[in-house]
């Protein structure tokens, strides 16, 4: 069954202007190719379950997808902190720290 | 770019016969629908990155995919332990314990 | 301020008999020496905070205590699974699986 | 066996001056009382192991110590980010971001 792109949270900032990320093309293609691989692995896990593959083998693929996803998260966090977070703090907008802490607590759960 | 199903480890058991999981159809469709949602979210994250969506919003979707994936892992682990692991131990095959520990250590990393 | 041993859950099994672990003396002394080191590090962290040591340095000691504690947990889990869990399953008492899953879910949080 | 305070990393900043944290007395006493409780629990775990308490009960105390330790880490991280990190970025010293990322990666492991 084909899956449509999941409806995702709209990104309009509360104060009307829209915050944007500004990755280089190189970073974007790196992130996209990692996510393509993750997407393929998730599809692969579905196939394993449909074919009644032994659970331990499926669990091992799940843990490698978790690691790959952590890798994407860490890469994004680094770019975010070295660009938007520094810029907003230098502009005097320290609200970004609480925003970052909230997101990090979810990632560190 | 369409991603082919990731080449996955072959599942031939060391002693020649092939270990299989034996989920009910209900469990299988539950797992598949969760994985469909995860696949859609991963595709959605790609779209967010292509559209330069603010990193914090992307990181929040990543952490919800991590939770969903953890949920699938825990569900599989429970089924595995309540079926294959118990059966193999009752058959005197305690090697399954070391196999389980190795997999759990990866999941608990 | 000296801290008394934390009041810990009583271990009387619901069915009156008391479940016991049965580690070798070697395992017990290994676990105790790891826990002595962890106790020393926790005391050290208190000292760092009292002396206003830079937070990043304190956070690094906290993460090494977390790793040491994970190591103790994994060691205990292995011993538990290779002794009590196998024995209880071979005795036909499969309740141990749900008990183990509940504990693992807390450790994997 | 009494444990001495663990020898901890010296805190001389690379550029000769010594970085300090600057917690309020209220924060410091909160952190110290949490660490006292953790120290007591670690001592309690040693007692459980010496008395051959059932492993599952010990594992449950370990997971609550892990949560308590995570709580201390998150509290320190928040204070660090809302004070030192903001101040150093506003002073133009963006090296603090890489320092923070390195520490966070260890905590998120």
Architecture overview:
4 copies of one chain form a homotetramer. The first copy, chain A, has helices at 25-50, 55-90, 95-107. The first copy, chain A, is mostly helical and 109 residues long. Chain A has a single domain (25-107), classed as Metal-sensitive repressor, helix protomer (Methane Monooxygenase Hydroxylase, Chain G, domain 1), CATH 1.20.58.1000. In chain A, α1 (25-50) runs antiparallel to α2 (55-90) and α2 (55-90) runs antiparallel to α3. Chain A is elongated, with a radius of gyration of 18 Å. In chain A, 30% of the residues are buried. The model of chain A is unreliable at 7-16 (pLDDT under 50). Chains A and B meet through α1, α2 and α3 of A and α1, α2 and α3 of B. Chains A, B, C, D: Residues 16-28 have a biased composition (Basic and acidic residues). Chains A, B, C, D: Residues 1-28 are annotated as: Disordered. Chains A, B, C, D: It holds the Pfam family Trns_repr_metal. Chains A, B, C, D: This is Metal-sensitive transcriptional regulator.
